């Protein structure tokens, strides 16, 4: 079983179990407190948390690597010579060469782009769906909430990896970009539910606030209240959930690519390289270990970052 | 309570039809001429064409025809008839051979999660904010964050190939020893989640009123923990482990694929690799049902075990 599924499943269960479940509503973020605001408190907590700094640094490094891989390696990932198959380190190839005679390190560096792109766009898509659904359900309540909540329940009941396998098998051909788009699409439409629940519950808290009543008395319509007053105040918990989701989407993409139904050949992806490295592990281990380390570090960076921020904003959960 | 069960049941039925509809629509609808696809390059005689059209109700076209065939598929799915894989074997037979292996693996994983996860969770919950507690928190975060596609091949390489403590792959007739390493890899995720769940639950219950009462009665700490706290703390853990058994049985695709264990996940892994459409659809359909049913059972179990939870 894949871990993103377990993590998601666990979170889902906790969310579904309601009262005793854990990831409930983060408190009204930004609500003024006596000496410091909650956000200020959270920031003070965060600054002292080494995990926050380590994971932020990793996120910055990997983002840089995705944007400008040329800074990190001089070699091309597609400069492959079979004659140096599994050859040891030389020149710029600090981790040697893989089965096809490509620079292992360079391929791992260039693989960052596809992974982060898929993770970020899938998280963005998830965020948009979750915000719309959560906002509508939380703000209007009544039958809108009833219908949307049931939809969330049903989508939550669909196992992510299995559904992704079926959906992606259908898109067996197409250009590189079409494949990347397909993977993003599949992850986004299957993965938005947890975030939608978080948005819904924070919208429900936010809409009872005095400033919303004040805005309504001043004559603001539903659209304006939602956009100008509730959205900014329910965004923070959603962003935390999405940071963690970004990490699990990267893991999900790698898993799908590993299975051979995610990203395919001309696109360089860690999942595929791990699969190739795994098959040839008896001859050479570095082509397996290097992309594995990159993948694990990236996923961990995002999950730890989200976890640290969540802990800071909601110390109850600790 | 009854209304809750009924609602969950209805939800499950909806999810079942939703997922099977997606599976079916994606795999079988709009694929051009299915009869020619079945025959490959060979010509199809009129008689064969007529027979197959009759058999699969291909003469009904449009949306009505699609749903007719969809319900046909659901009916045979519910009757346990999963059809044949491209290699000509009955998918039901493949699954029958694969289940015991997968179940064995899942039970090993679950045992690992219970023995290590729950024990460490109880200790961490009692000694909150201690070094042990903080290090288990970081460790579990690491385990939860590292994807199986990293964990499984690395464990196989280090423990199986390099240091040769375990057999790197299980064969067609896996022994308990051969399944141990994959079981640990598979169970590590459940272990981490079980640990965190136990820890939170124990820590929460230690602050409960009944614990204070027990303490003021003069009971020794050992008795308070084992009799009062543990009993109440393990409710969510038990339900989690229940749903986890369902998950483990349905989802060991990567672990079984990497360690070459001839279970259900391995067959799915192979089906994906060899582009065996019917095999993938058959297995996925069954796994979805297993997943939905295990989720339902656990949700109901939870409501029964913990009456404090009120469902509207």
TrEMBL record, chain A:
Keywords: Cell membrane, Membrane, Transmembrane, Transmembrane helix, Transport. The chain crosses the membrane at residues 51-74, 116-141, 147-168, 180-199, 235-263, 284-305. PROSITE patterns: ABC_TM1 (PS50928). GO terms for cellular component: plasma membrane. The keyword Transmembrane helix applies. SUPFAM superfamilies: MetI-like. Residues 1-37 are annotated as: Disordered. It is found in: Cell membrane. Belongs to the binding-protein-dependent transport system permease family. This is ABC transporter permease. It comes from Micromonospora orduensis. The lineage of its organism: Bacteria, Bacillati, Actinomycetota, Actinomycetes, Micromonosporales.
TrEMBL record, chain B:
Pfam families: BPD_transp_1. SUPFAM superfamilies: MetI-like (SSF161098). Residues 99-302 form the ABC transmembrane type-1 domain. It is a multi-pass membrane protein. Belongs to the binding-protein-dependent transport system permease family. PROSITE patterns: ABC_TM1. Coiled coil: none annotated. Gene3D superfamilies: MetI-like (1.10.3720.10). One of its GO terms (cellular component) is plasma membrane. The keyword Phosphoprotein does not apply. It is found in: Cell membrane. InterPro entries: MetI-like (IPR000515), MetI-like_sf (IPR035906). PANTHER family: DIPEPTIDE TRANSPORT SYSTEM PERMEASE PROTEIN DPPB-RELATED, DIPEPTIDE-TRANSPORT INTEGRAL MEMBRANE PROTEIN ABC TRANSPORTER DPPB-RELATED. Its main location: membrane. It comes from Micromonospora orduensis. GO terms for biological process: transmembrane transport. This is ABC transporter permease. The keyword Membrane applies. The chain crosses the membrane at residues 12-30, 105-124, 136-155, 175-197, 279-305. Keywords: Cell membrane, Membrane, Transmembrane, Transmembrane helix, Transport.
